[in-house]
Amino acid sequence: MTSTLKVFVARLVGLVVLGPDGESMGRVRDVVVSMYLPGQRPRALGLAVELTTRRRIFVPMSRVTNIDADAVTLTTGRVNLRRLHLRPNEALAVGQILESQVHTDDPDHPGLHDSALVVVDMEIERSQRLDWVISRVALRTTRKGPLRRRGETVVVPWHHVRGLTRLNLNRPGHGVELALTQFEGMRPADVAGVLRELPDHRRDELAAALDNERLADVLQEMSTDEQTAALAALKPSRAADVLEAMDPDDVADLLGELPAAEAEALLARMDPEESEPVRRLLLHSPDTAGGVMTPEPIIVSAGATVSEALARVANPDIPSATATMVFVVRPPTSTPTGKFLGAVHMQALLREPPANLVAGILDADVPRLGPDDSLEVMTRFFATYNLVLAPVVDDDAHLLGAVAVDDLLDAVLPRDWREQEPEGEL
């Protein structure tokens, strides 16, 4: 028996979920509700729990043994680790129902009978049959009335709310603002995981609402199939803007999966300065160093100072693996560069006086890859030299780019590795 028999769903969000052994397994992110049961109150079927691995799973409410101010505790037994997937009659309380427009015929609030109201929270209650059902709904007024202030909140019994059981959760714009608020502060990979769980129309709607930079970061954490689907839902001009905000190697991987005419149309819409590195990458096979590399590593000339190199490394937009090494070349310093002279490791930069030249701490013998090296060669390379970043240099000693170990992992892992379910149960 749970110590709490009633709770508002917004209060549950963010609570730690404890297993029967008292160890934290994740946090509550939403409540899954069954919406379409004629003649019955909608039931709270379970919790959408985000594991410490960032995967979201479904935990049935029957597994909940205690809810207190800080945590939700589960009973003994198995928890399936398969990713959360909603059935056609199910909805996410926070992600889909809150911010819905409804009406009320509650006799205690006659002044609201003709008012447009918005759902701001829902109370779930444990019934005598041990099911969790929606008992009350918190509503906010959307316009000022003769006796009411705009933005005032009232709580009414579920059976006096009209329109919620037949909510058109597919309608454009529904709850987008609330969802975007939830995304604030989340890592792109976590946002990608959330979008992956939503119906196609909802995912496309939220993707369209993200700004170009944010959407680009999220797309880079998706599989190529998911990227192409998301791109297809955008207008061509918007799609080109998002591609410009992505890393060139990710754009090349994505466009390489599209029909040639479609890929060329998108490249033509991009700024030539942004599309040119992508075109160079597309000349290489995707299973070679030239196809996996980023053409935009950190590059300086031999005359650069340590402080200048560190300023480049400190750029928050530079991926962590890319920031481990600064490449030194003769002009030009954009790829393909002049003669490749070597590299300076970040640790070496941190030990040097800021005014010193990078040429004085140059590692001229840093191991390097060729643009035609295979995935197997690259895998052995990183295992041998214990590096996280490797320069890609052609036969004429021009630096073409760099391969980061995370880009290599993306290339060697199964195509759908982001979507694969873990084995076993918790």
TrEMBL record:
Keywords, ordered alphabetically: CBS domain
Record keyword 4Fe-4S present: no
The keyword Oxidoreductase appears for this protein: no
Stored Pfam families: CBS (PF00571), MgtE_N (PF03448), PRC (PF05239), SH3_actinomycetes (PF26205)
Top-level lineage group: Bacteria
Signal sequence range: none
Residue ranges crossing the lipid bilayer per the database entry: none
Cross-referenced SMART domains: MgtE_N
Span of domain CBS: 362-423
UniProt cross-references to PANTHER family, sorted A to Z: MAGNESIUM TRANSPORTER MGTE
Protein name: CBS domain-containing protein
Source organism per UniProt: Gordonia caeni
